[in-house]
Design a protein that fits this description.
5-stranded mixed barrel; OB fold (Dihydrolipoamide Acetyltransferase, E2P); binds zinc ion; 18% helix; alpha+beta; 8 helices; 446 residues; 5-stranded mixed β-barrel
């Protein structure tokens, strides 16, 4: 007989497996399996998901009776939701309502799907990086986005950090599935790989290899996960727009960027055009999870949506060597010694979308746009204050904990991915303003 505490979970598993029970697996085996997981301390919900996946059934994400919802599933006005989330960012804020001072906490929650801002009316004993199980949160819509609220009834419990897939780091690269790879998963050094992608552009170039004239067909291919440069050392008669399935390709690194390479030893076949998104769709792809950037070797053009978690030291006005563009320290270039240098402006920051965090650099043009001042204006301000910290201070105040949609290129080295931002737009304007608006609404403050 099932133990009282396993019975409801076993019932759920049996219900979800439907006709498979009795054919592929029997109830007794399921009960034993569930029991084993629980004995090892695996939480029942996780055990249920593992067992269902093993039998080829996608676990239901939410259902009646208090199952978990992911942040990606949340709508703008939910009365009672249960979450399993990581604290991506948390801070305290004092606000005044009805003449009374009140301390609230605001920040960012993340799970394997995305991040969302939250406000807690109850003081939480949690810190950045904690994974929490939340029972009875509610949501409100703010500027078109669902915002999570922890009211007086909410229950928050710190749980094992492993219950959420850990954000990948450069030291622990993501394991890849067997079989065909997606473009975002390609890494230099890969060989004998299989990939399906659309030829986005192609041109033939004459080159000399070991004294012999040869032709290489180069361009860009892409799929629903990204784009990559390619070189074909054999005339496959490739045409722009067609979708090809390549077997036996390899990936080389060239100036920090990956190149998909194939030749006469590779096999190539054309496949139905609708196997892969259209060129326009690939060009205007929505944000990819930051964790994807840890799978591959960098991307030429990718969009992410993430919280600017932290403005890093080294942001602001810098001087670069006119010979090699390295940032000068005390007027010295590591390579060229004392040089005059040329002024530059940048923001270094950490972006986090809940699935992972990456280092990012915002160019001079983008920094000017995001902070609303030109480099010349910043230079004048720095002189006036006799400090170049003015930019970093302003960036911290204006950008920290805001959500941006960022487009740019990604380079990957031994320290992990580095996002070089080319475009950025604010998605979520201001958490404090959102919290104050909500409080005003709740307490009837005009
Ligand atoms: Zn130099």
């Amino acid at each position: 007989m099932p133990q009282p505490q396993t019975a409801p979970h076993l019932e759920e598993i049996v219900r979800a497996l439907g006709e498979k029970v009795g054919r592929e697996v029997n109830v007794h085996e399921l009960e034993e399996e569930l029991g084993r997981y629980l004995e090892y301390g695996v939480p029942p919900e996780q055990a249920r998901s593992i067992i269902l996946r093993k039998h080829g059934v996608t676990p239901p994400k939410s259902g009646p009776g208090g199952s978990r919802k992911t942040l990606g599933e949340l709508q703008g006005s939910e009365g009672f939701v249960n979450l399993l989330v990581r604290i991506v960012h948390i801070g305290t804020k004092e606000i005044t309502a009805r003449g009374e001072k009140r301390t609230i906490q605001t920040g960012i929650l993340g799970d394997e799907t995305r991040t969302r801002p939250f406000t807690s009316w109850k003081t939480l004993d949690v810190e950045k990086g904690d994974v929490i199980k939340v029972t009875g949160a509610y949501t409100k819509e703010y500027q078109g986005e669902a915002q999570v609220n922890f009211g007086d009834r909410v229950q928050v419990e710190k749980v094992d950090k492993d219950l959420l897939p850990p954000p990948p780091t450069a030291a622990t690269p993501v394991e890849r599935p067997e079989g065909p790879l997606r473009v975002s998963e390609l890494r230099p050094g890969d060989s004998g790989i299989e990939v399906t992608a659309r030829i986005l552009n192609i041109s033939a170039k004459p080159v000399t290899v070991q004294g012999q004239p040869k032709t290489v067909w180069s361009g860009t291919v892409g799929d629903g996960t990204g784009k990559i440069a390619f070189n074909a050392w054999h005339d496959f008669g490739l045409q722009e727009g067609e979708v090809v399935h390549v077997k036996g390709a390899y990936v080389k690194a060239f100036r920090g960027a990956a190149q998909l390479t194939f030749d006469e030893r590779s096999s190539l076949e054309r496949v139905a055009p609708d196997t892969v998104p259209t060129a326009t769709e690939i060009d205007h792809q929505g944000p990819v999870p930051l964790s994807v950037l840890y799978h591959g070797a960098g991307q030429a053009d990718v969009t992410v949506e993430a919280t600017l978690l932290e403005v890093r030291p080294g942001s602001g006005l810098v001087k670069r060597c006119t010979n090699c563009k390295r940032v000068l320290r005390n007027g010295m270039c590591g390579e060229h010694g004392k040089v005059e240098g040329r002024l530059d402006l940048r923001i270094k920051a950490i972006l986090d979308d809940g699935t992972a965090a990456v280092n990012a650099i915002f160019s001079k043009e983008l920094t000017e746009q995001m902070l609303g001042k030109t480099m010349a204006e910043w230079e004048a301000l720095a002189k006036e204050h006799m400090s170049t910290d003015v930019v970093e201070a302003e960036a911290k105040t204006r950008l920290t904990a805001r959500v941006f949609r960022v487009r740019g290129a990604v380079l990957v080295d031994e320290y992990g991915p580095m996002f070089l931002a080319k475009e950025a737009a604010v998605v979520q304007r201001d958490l404090t303003a959102a919290a104050e608006a909500l409080l005003a609404e709740l307490e009837g403050v005009a």
